[in-house]
Amino acid sequence: MKPIVRSGATARAGALLILLGPLVSWLAEFVTAAAWQDPPYSPLYNWVSHLGLTGPRQTAFGQVAHSPLGAVMDTGWVLYGSLLIVGAFLLFDPRKGARPVVILVLAVLAGAGVSLVGVFQGSNANVDNGLIAFHTFGAQGVMLAGNAMAIAVGADGARIGLTRGRSVASMALGTAGLIAFPLFMADAVTGWMWNVGLFERAVIYPIMIGHVLLGSSVAAAHRRPATRPRAPLDARVVS
């Protein structure tokens, strides 16, 4: 099958950036959640986006929110989105047909979406001034485009450099995320809010795991060949 990715150092650099994005975001999430102690942060109950609130303690979207290191989480999301977009353009070659173009468009939408979540917080202030629309658009955009990207990557896994197992895993992750999306929306919109943090992560984490699979697979496939050690000086003189 004809590859749809670039070759050599460019592809490896792009893959490493795509791999780095979710790792940076997870690290920022861990640090920010650990600092949230009033009340203690619960990953099953609390919104993911509430980790990025930098304002005073408030009740937002039905939950008490207080994130002392909210700026760390916001920075993590912006970095994740930026790394994904740059990495995708370094990795996928749009000159090789419609398939890489589709993946690039989905990567841009997902990257822009997660960056918007970091720039426009889900705060009461942004609800009042209307900027919450950018936060909502970004969150729902990354949820839909990110999971669709995982499916597209898995479907073209052989053209990208993924093994069959990782291709199937990527498609399964994206499908699971898209199935979880309406469940999450129903939980939030109806006001039931039962373990909304769990449902939200069920949509988001498949995207992040998919990026880890993509980045690590391509980076390994394009790693530099080992340099053969030079022969000892004595042997070279004799020869």
Helix-strand makeup class: mainly alpha
How many separate helices? Answer: 9
Radius of gyration: 21 Å
Shape call? elongated
Q: If you had to describe this structure to a student in words, what would you say it looks like?
A:
The chain is an all-alpha fold and 239 residues long. The protein is 69% helix and 3% strand. The chain contains nine helices and two strands. The protein has helices at 8-35, 70-91, 98-119, 124-129, 132-155, 157-160, 164-189, 196-221, 233-238; strands at 58-60, 63-65. Strands 1-2 form a two-stranded antiparallel ribbon. α1 (8-35) packs antiparallel against α2 (70-91), α2 packs antiparallel against α3 and α7 packs antiparallel against α8. It is elongated.
What can be said about this structure in brief?
The chain is built from 9 helices and 2 strands; from the N terminus they run H-E-E-H-H-H-H-H-H-H-H.
List the topology elements.
Layout (H helix, E strand, L loop, with lengths): L7 H28 L22 E3 L2 E3 L4 H22 L6 H22 L4 H6 L2 H24 L1 H4 L3 H26 L6 H26 L11 H6 L1
Antiparallel strand pairs: 1-2
Helix pairs in contact: 1-2, 1-8, 2-3, 3-5, 5-7, 5-8, 7-8
